[in-house]
Specification:
The chain has six helices and eleven strands. With about 250 residues, it is α+β, with helices and mostly antiparallel strands. It has a domain of about 150 residues: Aminopeptidase (3-Layer(aba) Sandwich). Strand 5 and strand 6 form a beta hairpin. The longest helix is centred in the C-terminal third of the chain and has 21 residues.
C-alpha cells in the first residue's frame, strides 16, 4: 500500500489534543479525562427502527476462548479477506481464504457480530502494551518506521504504551448488510467494541479510521478526538483518532 499526506497546516500535539498539555503523558491524559466533569447529555439522534437488529449476536473471542465459539474465528478471518483484500485490495497476508497479520496474537481480542452463521461485522482490539517479536501495535510500529505502508508521523505525539489504552483495527461491516440496517449495525459494533475494551480495563481506544468517520460519528452521537494528520492509504483518506470509553452511554 502507498501512502501520501494531504496538504495540511502543521499542527502540534498540544493544539490537537489540549488535555495532553503541557506534558505529553498518556497517564496524565487519562487522569484529566476521568476527572473532568461530564457535560450534560444531549438528546441522542433516533436510529431507524424499521430495519431492526434481528438476531445479531456479539461474541468477543481470544485464543483462550475461541474453542467455545465453533468455527466463528475462521469465518471472521474469511470475512476480513472479503473486505480488506478482495474489495479494498490491501497488500496484507492471506492463507486458506483468511486475512490476518502480525497483530492477530494471543494478546488481542476479536469482537464479532454474527447472525445465523453469517459474519455481520467485526473489529480487533489490542493493548498498547503488546509485544510480539519486533512488533508492538500498529500505530506505535508505524511511528517506529517498521511498517512501510504507514507514515512515521501518524500521531501528533509519542505513541503511548499504557495498560489503560487499547488499539482498535480492522473495523468493518459486511458488504452483505443492506443499507437500511447499516447504521444500527455500525452502532451495535461500535458499542460492542467499547464494551469489549472496557471489560479489559481500557480507558481509551485509539486507532486509524477513514476520514469520513466524522460524518458517521455524528450520526451515532459518538465523539472522537483527532490525534494525527490526515494521510492516504490506497486512495482512502485516513486519520488516527482517540475515543474515551467512559464517555459512551448506551
Amino acid at each position: 500500500m502507498k501512502h501520501a499526506h494531504a496538504n495540511i497546516k502543521a499542527v502540534s500535539g498540544r493544539q490537537a489534543l489540549p488535555e495532553l498539555a503541557p506534558a505529553v503523558s498518556p497517564t496524565a491524559m487519562m487522569e484529566q479525562a476521568v476527572a473532568r466533569k461530564p457535560e450534560p447529555a444531549s438528546p441522542k439522534p433516533a436510529l431507524p427502527t424499521d430495519a431492526g437488529l434481528g438476531n445479531i449476536r456479539t461474541s468477543v473471542m481470544s485464543f483462550s476462548t475461541m474453542h467455545m465459539h465453533g468455527d466463528l474465528l475462521l469465518r471472521y478471518m474469511q470475512a476480513r479477506k472479503k473486505i480488506f483484500i478482495d474489495r479494498l485490495k490491501w497488500h496484507v497476508p492471506q492463507a486458506d481464504g483468511m486475512e490476518f497479520d502480525q497483530y492477530d496474537t494471543p494478546m488481542c481480542r476479536w469482537v464479532v457480530l454474527h447472525e445465523y452463521g453469517e459474519i455481520i461485522g467485526g473489529v480487533r482490539l489490542l493493548p498498547t502494551t503488546s509485544n510480539c517479536g519486533v512488533y508492538t501495535y500498529m500505530l506505535n510500529d508505524a511511528q517506529r518506521g517498521i511498517l512501510q505502508d504507514l507514515p512515521t508521523d501518524v500521531l501528533f505525539f509519542k505513541a503511548p504504551i499504557e495498560a489503560g489504552i487499547w488499539e482498535a483495527s480492522r473495523f468493518f461491516i459486511s458488504d452483505d448488510v443492506p443499507s437500511k440496517r447499516r447504521l444500527e449495525v455500525q452502532n451495535m459494533l461500535f458499542r460492542a467494541m467499547n464494551d469489549g475494551a472496557k471489560s479489559e480495563g481500557a480507558l481509551f481506544i485509539l486507532g486509524i479510521v477513514p476520514y469520513i468517520w466524522a460524518r458517521w460519528a455524528r450520526r451515532l452521537d459518538v465523539s472522537a478526538t483527532p490525534i494525527g494528520a490526515k494521510f492516504d492509504i490506497e486512495g482512502t483518506k485516513s486519520q488516527a483518532v482517540l475515543f474515551n470509553t467512559q464517555s459512551l452511554e448506551h
